[in-house]
Each structure stands twice: as structure tokens, then as C-alpha cells.
Amino acid sequence: MTSSLSPVPATAADQPAIDALLDRCFGMTRRTKSSYRLREGSAAVPGLSFVVRDGAALVATISFWPVKIGLAGHEALLLGPLAVDPGLQGRGLGLMLMRHGLALAKAQGHGLVVLVGDAPYYAKVGFAPLPHEAILMPGPLNRARFLHLELKPGALAGASGLMLPPWRHDDIIARLRRG
Fold this sequence. Notes:
Blueprint: E1 7-9, H1 15-26, H2 34-39, E2 49-54, E3 57-69, E4 74-79, E5 83-84, H3 93-107, E6 112-116, H4 119-122, E7 128-129, E8 135-136, E9 146-150, E10 161-164, H5 166-178
Parallel strand pairs: 4-6, 8-10
Antiparallel strand pairs: 1-2, 2-3, 3-4, 3-5, 3-10, 6-9, 7-9
């Protein structure tokens, strides 16, 4: 990895290049995955979306999204998508982006990060499979790929139920209160 490749905040102007990179890395069917359902209708957490450029080319990206778990609304971040241009994979850009984003998420006071991904890869920065099946995602899910990282000790305690985007969670709670 070239030392000049470093994370910078993503901007709205980066979105077309980010979408093109995600399509190259994950294909057009990426939008059908359960983790995409959790991002629909929400905005990434301010200050937690980054890109890496090699000259003018956008070659890597990461974002973190707010989610709420269960009726209690246990707050967490959903990491993803994380993508690195196929020609640059294996050079540490993804790990660099994760370390950078996780450090800033911790500094912002976030306690829990979840994702769906390759356990051996994400274990390199501390992610582990969820220790119980109390947290659910909408849609199909391979539990072995459902991972978490506590940025604050004990942040996973009490998290149980269906994980939803905050707007959807709050809508359900409001309906329940109205009876």
C-alpha cells in the first residue's frame, strides 16, 4: 500500500464514484441484501463515511449507519459497505479504513458496531460472531457472518430483538403507543 493513500471524508459529490465502486466489488444484486434494507431511508452517521483516492480515482470506501435493536431501541452502528477496488485488494486499504472509522466512532461515543461479513477478515480488527441469537435482522441472514465489536465494554448487553433503521423503529414504537 502506498503511504499517500489515506482516508478522507466522503462528500455528496463522491456518491456516483462510490456507487460505481460498490457495483464493481459486489455486483448489481448488492441492493437486495438484508444489510441494504437497514440503510434504506437513512443517512450515514455524520463524520463516519470515508473514501480513499489514488490520484483522481476513488479506490476505497466505508460508511457507518445508525440502527436500533429491539423495542428498547438499543443503539448501534452498522458498518458497511466496505469496498476496495479489486485491483488494490490485499494491500491493507480495507483494514486501514476500518481502523480509522472505528477509532472515530469510538471518539464520537458509539458503543456497538455490527456487520454482515467474512468473519476471518473482520476478526483482524476485533469483530467476532454475535454470542447469541437475540439480535435479528430483517430478511435472510447467515448467523456465522453476523458480527459485532464493542467499542465500549458491555455495549452488547441488553441488545435483543429486531434490528431496524432508526426511522422505522421509531415509526413502529409510535404506532404501538397509539394503540
